[in-house]
Amino acid sequence: MQKLLLLMFLAHQASGVIYSLNLTEYYRMPELHEMDDYDRCLVAPKGLYCVLDADLYPGENPDLMRMLQEYSASTKKHYNHTQIHRAICVTKTCEDFTQGRYLENPKDLKLVLEECVNASIWRTHKLTAKVTNISTCKKNGAKRHFTAGDYIMAGVYMTLIIVNVLGTWHDFIQDDTSGNPYLLAFSIRRNWRKLTAVGFEGPDHRLRRLRVFNGLRTLTIFGVFTTHTALVMAFSFLKNPLYFEVAYEDPFKVLLVNGDVVTYTFFVMSGFLVAFNLELLAEKTKITIWAWPKAIVLRWLRLTPVMAIVLFTVMTINRHLADGPQWDLVVISEAEACWQYWWAHLLYINNYIYDNSHCLPQTWYLAADFQLCALGVLVCVVFRRPRYQAMVLAVLGVLALVMPAAHTYFQDLDAVVYQTPELYRSLYKTYDTFRIMYVRAHTNMFTYILGMACGLLAIHWFKNEKVVSERFQKYGWVIWLTLPIVLFNVYSGSFFYADGYQPSTALRVLYATLRKPLFQVFTFIFIMGSIFKAEGMLYLLRGRLPALHGAEGAPLTALRVLYATLRKPLFQVFTSIFIMGSIFKAEGMLYLLRGRLPALDGAEGAPLTALRVLYATLRKPLFQVFTSIFIMGSIFKAEGMLYLLRGRLPALDGAEGAPSTALRVLYATLRKPLFQVFTFIFIMGSIFKAEGILYLLRGRLPALDGAEGAVRRATEAAVPSLHLHIHHGIHLQG
């Protein structure tokens, strides 16, 4: 067995892949990216700046080349270090190689760049380099010319600004009265109100129950923003690419790498709202087959104006907004791609013709959602009976699981959409798993079908809302159980990044098929639990523990009185313990035992061990008790002792339930004096070096004192100090 393990270890080491390097070895490699100063280069006469890629070859350093190849072979986590990327000021950095060359000639320019890069790499690493791609070149004085499209878009923007000014002015004049609806549609004030208004309001209480979508959309979009910010860093010229490469080992950054499943939450919400709103509409009017084309046209009209503005801005004006070493590579190339595929975006089919270009790649979601919305509305319009709807959704759900499995198996796709450094750099241009499994509608259909089922089920459950709510409250622990399952789902994707691990075909098919549906089942449970008021563990117990019920289902008054009585004292007990612990240097359980366990004690006469042990033992639990009481009080609306006693102790109530006059007078009289008594004690204690009540008692209560009578002597010695303090204070005031 030992020989077998040794053989496996040696085989792994001889596999020709290096998964990690120490810093000394890592910095032996050539810089992956180097960039000359762009502005300084182009401000010089005849300045020429080029961005290029170059492949490395062994030269006279085959050992280093072998290390580069083996380190780059770990493609899931590492950049390809056998190819370097340079942004070079040709007229300065490569000045020695331009003699007798005509830089306007592409062949001469490539020779100059190749000789320049080759000389640099040879000088530092004894490797050779060959230029494989010149991405962009820009020379001094080069300007971008405005086209007819630029002027048209400028006119569109000017028109929009004028109409917005007129609409806002008209809105202020009308002062919330009726006016020209076409002008008011462009009022900034009115649109801002709509934008910031709370969603899902209206006379129907079922719509108000959907407020959970406001929070869910906000959390999801923040997650999307967070994960996509890594893209900017990935295809930039990084000074420290190692930071990006080791991020795959960081458990917190793994959430960004594997957080792509969060995006599909939007499909669940979209499917829910389509089915839910159509059923609400069906209660008021008859749904006919003509509702399907009408819904598609209305959705296209709602999405397309904004989409078109963004698309044509990228194609035209965006090109002129800035400049930089990678501006042409990233921004201009996107504009050129959009000139080729703008029609596909306006028809919302761009996710099926995702070519090697990258025109607004993020809009794949709009296309997929538009296509799935058309399918969802068709199902709800054609099949009006709940039984037929359930049958059709079940068939579509099975089909939605089969299609990703078939793609993964027959096209040999990956189990997850790998977020590797090199794929980030290319924005997945040639990555089939992304283009087929991630952005297409039919491979995301299950999440949308799940959302529709959720919406139809909610409509049905609202007919017996009380019973459903009680069931959710009874089994509320299931909702909490889904949280660790979701975290496991996200983190499970990191298994496929394990060094040297190649999953089997069966595992790839199974994981690619089930990962997204399992994650969105959590979304389904969360949405339904929020709608039907499964809000917290104590709240969930309502209906199960009658002793916690009042006449209206309120928690037992005794519990609320107990909370109001103990909340402040327990917090102040914690404060006292914290102060005492700080005075007596109680920093931990073992430290507190010093003086009782000789091996841990010094000879300085530390305070009583029992007190210090007690502090260390109770400090954290008492704080958490306070936290628990605070949470319970917030749940049960316990806002104060007197408030809780209203209706329970009539003697404290006035005609309207207010506290008695005597009590109010007493409180108003004593509140400030009692606080200032504390201030007085604190000042006097500070003057007399009294660092704690228990410490002051030392020498008075022998059980709390050491053998030195320290406090008595300190107090006696403090009397002259008192005179000094008083005299100094009078002197300062004088």
Helix amount: 55-70%
Number of helices: 32
Alpha carbon gyration radius: 36 Å
> What fraction of residues sit in β-strands?
under 5%
**Quaternary structure:** single chain
Spatial separation of the terminal alpha carbons: 91 Å
Coarse shape:
globular
Main β sheet profile: 4 strands, mixed
Low-confidence stretches: 4-14, 536-556, 586-607, 637-658, 692-734
Largest sheet: spatial strand order: 1-3-2-4
What is the count of β-strands? 4
Taking all residues together, what is the mean pLDDT? 79
Helix-strand category: mainly alpha
List keywords for this structure.
734 residues, 32 helices
Q: Would you mind describing this structure in some detail?
A:
The chain has helices spanning 2-13, 23-26, 38-43, 62-72, 90-93, 106-125, 148-174, 181-184, 188-196, 205-208, 212-234, 241-246, 254-257, 265-282, 291-315, 327-346, 364-382, 386-410, 421-426, 432-438, 445-461, 465-474, 477-492, 505-531, 537-540, 557-583, 589-592, 609-635, 641-645, 661-687, 693-697, 710-733; strands at 33-35, 48-57, 83-89, 128-139. By secondary structure, it is mostly helical. Among the domains are: 16-139, no CATH class; 551-659, no CATH class; 660-734, no CATH class. Helix 14 (265-282) packs across helix 21 (445-461) and helix 23 packs antiparallel against helix 24. The model is unreliable at 4-14, 536-556, 586-607, 637-658 and 692-734 (pLDDT under 50).
Topology:
Layout lengths: L1 H12 L9 H4 L6 E3 L2 H6 L4 E10 L4 H11 L10 E7 H4 L12 H20 L2 E12 L8 H27 L6 H4 L3 H9 L8 H4 L3 H23 L6 H6 L7 H4 L7 H18 L8 H25 L11 H20 L17 H19 L3 H25 L10 H6 L5 H7 L6 H17 L3 H10 L2 H16 L12 H27 L5 H4 L16 H27 L5 H4 L16 H27 L5 H5 L15 H27 L5 H5 L12 H24 L1
Parallel strand pairs: 1-3
Antiparallel strand pairs: 2-3, 2-4
